[in-house]
Amino acid sequence: MTDKPPQVPAADQTLRILTYLARQPAPVPAAAMAQALGIPRSSVYHLLDALAQHGYVVHVPAERRWGLGTAAFELGGGYSRQQPIARLGRRLVATLADRTGESAHLAIMSGRDVVYIVEERAPRRPALVTDVGVRLPAHLTATGRAMLAALPAAQIRALFPDAASFTDRTGHGPATPGALREVLRRVRADGYASEDGEITLGLRSVGVAVLDHAGWPVAAVATTWAEDAAQDAASLVPAVRSAAAELQRRLYGR
């Protein structure tokens, strides 16, 4: 980030409004947006009106609130379809699900979260929370741990400086920087990441990172199964490694 003033303030404010709305669980009042973003209320209303004309936001008159519109959804869907990692990984993830008989997915890092960009549900398997576009805490997921383990220590410290940086879903998983360092040490030693009930109780996952030419994690492939299924990490890891390696080869030629 930079402290340099934006050259096009209206464009900057528009993007900030869309980003803010995308992170909210429900539509919000324009006044709340103005206060949260530090944008004059009159400017927020003008920008919202322009965005509404193009379908990027919608107004809920009964509640006097604003939310994202269908055009924003279509834009996100276009990104998912066109983004090279998702495009090249989609068939590999489907093959992984067929090969293992379990649901498989592909995720990328976004701050302290992972964002799922490909999801393949296996027949007659439990519903998962990893739909395309869903964000989950990286330190709790197999995909996130696989990617975090490939990052420099300084980057991990910047992302997770203290206990306040950690969120919790099921009461399991690392909650301090020291605990996370131990989790990532095991990931590096094993060559894959795992999680057991830390996202959803009763479900387990294993994941492997996809690295670029510099060894930087650009994505991770994972598979998820029920803890009472006739599966274990040892039987699933080879297929996940193979899918990650093939995606890495298709992206970077190695």
Shape type: globular
- Biggest sheet overview: 6 strands, antiparallel
Uncertain spans: none
- Name the helicity range: 40-55%
User: What is the CATH architecture annotation of the largest domain?
Assistant: 2-Layer Sandwich
Taking the alpha carbons of the first and last residues, their distance comes to 32 Å
Q: Please count the beta strands (DSSP E, at least 2 residues each).
A: 8
Note the total helix count: 9
Q: Tell me the CATH topology of the largest domain.
A: Beta-Lactamase
How many structural units, i.e. domains?
A: 2
Instruction: Give the oligomer, counting copies of the same chain as homo and different chains as hetero.
Output: single chain
Write the layout of secondary structure elements.
Blueprint: H1 9-22, H2 30-37, H3 41-53, E1 57-60, E2 65-68, H4 70-82, H5 84-100, E3 103-110, E4 113-120, E5 135-137, H6 142-148, H7 153-159, H8 177-190, E6 193-196, E7 203-211, E8 217-226, H9 233-252
Helix pairs in contact: 1-3, 2-3, 5-9
